[in-house]
């Protein structure tokens, strides 16, 4: 029996199979295979194929490990935020900010970036306060980006949003000026839209947890 297995193992190895592929077929320990196959030489082509296969498997294992790690970390933050929501939802100002973000904020799980965009400076001011008060976002973490149609572009627009956000100009991304087919301004006082951005994945997940906590509370009522 051992001789037949050894002969088959040698044939498989000579055909370019890896140790793990041979073990799947013959159920033999790696140490035994090493002893049996130590004199078997592989061609350059076979070595290259095994090298590529091993790299692909290792890359998959690493990607799967990172994916599982992210899922666990995300679940932990969301679960903790859902518990926080039970107490925070008693504060109407917290609920107001959460509802505004739910309606106007970025909810893409792909990027996991906290982003709130609006053209109303009062709403922007309120959300800036909400981010500082409830999310504990430090001032130096905030980023902002203006989106303005070419027709409405004015020199004083940046100053307008600097005042509304209280974010220094150094934390503003390059203004995005969009082309438009209109030739006449319909709203002479239009100041474009301002996007408030916080590049923190943990906060994105936390806000998601608060929202889920709110939904659970609605379902129990």
Which properties best describe this structure?
10% strand; alpha+beta; four-stranded mixed sheet; 8 helices; 2 domains; single chain; 221 residues
Care to describe what's here?
By secondary structure, this protein is of the alpha+beta class. The protein has eight helices and four strands, in the order αααααβαβαββα. It folds into two domains: 2-67, no CATH class; 80-220, no CATH class. The chain has helices spanning 2-14, 19-26, 30-37, 44-88, 92-104, 121-133, 157-165, 201-220, and strands at 114-118, 143-149, 176-178, 193-198. It has a four-stranded mixed sheet. Strand 2, helix 7 (157-165) and strand 3 form a beta-alpha-beta unit. Helix 4 packs across helix 8. It starts with a helix and ends with a helix. The mean pLDDT is 84.
Quote the distance from N terminus to C terminus.
70 Å
Counting DSSP H or I runs of 4 or more residues, the number of helices is: 8
Question: What is the CA-atom radius of gyration, in angstroms?
Answer: 29 Å
Spatial strand order of the main sheet: 1-4-2-3
N-to-C SSE string, H for helix and E for strand: HHHHHEHEHEEH
Fraction in beta strands: 5-15%
Reported for the largest beta sheet, the result is: 4 strands, mixed
- The shape is elongated
Question: How is this structure best summarized?
Answer:
Helix content is 58%, strand content 10%. The chain has 221 residues and is of the alpha+beta class. Strands 1-4-2-3 form a 4-stranded mixed β-sheet.
SSE blueprint and pairings:
Blueprint: H1 2-14, H2 19-26, H3 30-37, H4 44-88, H5 92-104, E1 114-118, H6 121-133, E2 143-149, H7 157-165, E3 176-178, E4 193-198, H8 201-220
Parallel strand pairs: 2-3
Antiparallel strand pairs: 1-4, 2-4
């Amino acid at each position: 029996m051992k001789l037949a297995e050894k002969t088959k193992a040698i044939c498989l190895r000579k055909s370019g199979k890896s140790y793990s592929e041979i073990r799947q077929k013959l159920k033999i320990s790696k140490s035994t295979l090493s002893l049996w196959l130590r004199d078997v030489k592989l061609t350059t082509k076979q070595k290259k194929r095994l090298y590529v296969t091993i790299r692909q498997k290792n890359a998959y294992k690493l990607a799967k490990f990172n994916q599982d790690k992210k899922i666990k970390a995300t679940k932990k933050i969301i679960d903790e935020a859902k518990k926080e929501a039970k107490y925070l939802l008693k504060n109407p100002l917290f609920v107001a900010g959460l509802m505004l973000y739910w309606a106007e904020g970025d909810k893409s799980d792909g990027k996991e970036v906290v982003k709130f965009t609006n053209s109303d400076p009062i709403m922007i001011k309120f959300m800036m306060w909400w981010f500082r008060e409830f999310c504990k976002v430090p001032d130096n973490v905030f980023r902002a980006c203006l989106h303005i149609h070419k027709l409405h572009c004015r020199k004083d627009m940046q100053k307008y949003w600097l005042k509304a956000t209280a974010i220094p100009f150094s934390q503003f991304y390059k203004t995005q000026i969009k082309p438009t087919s209109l030739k006449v301004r319909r709203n002479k006082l239009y100041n474009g839209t301002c996007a408030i951005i916080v590049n923190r994945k943990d906060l994105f997940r936390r806000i998601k947890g608060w929202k889920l906590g709110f939904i659970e509370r609605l379902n129990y009522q």
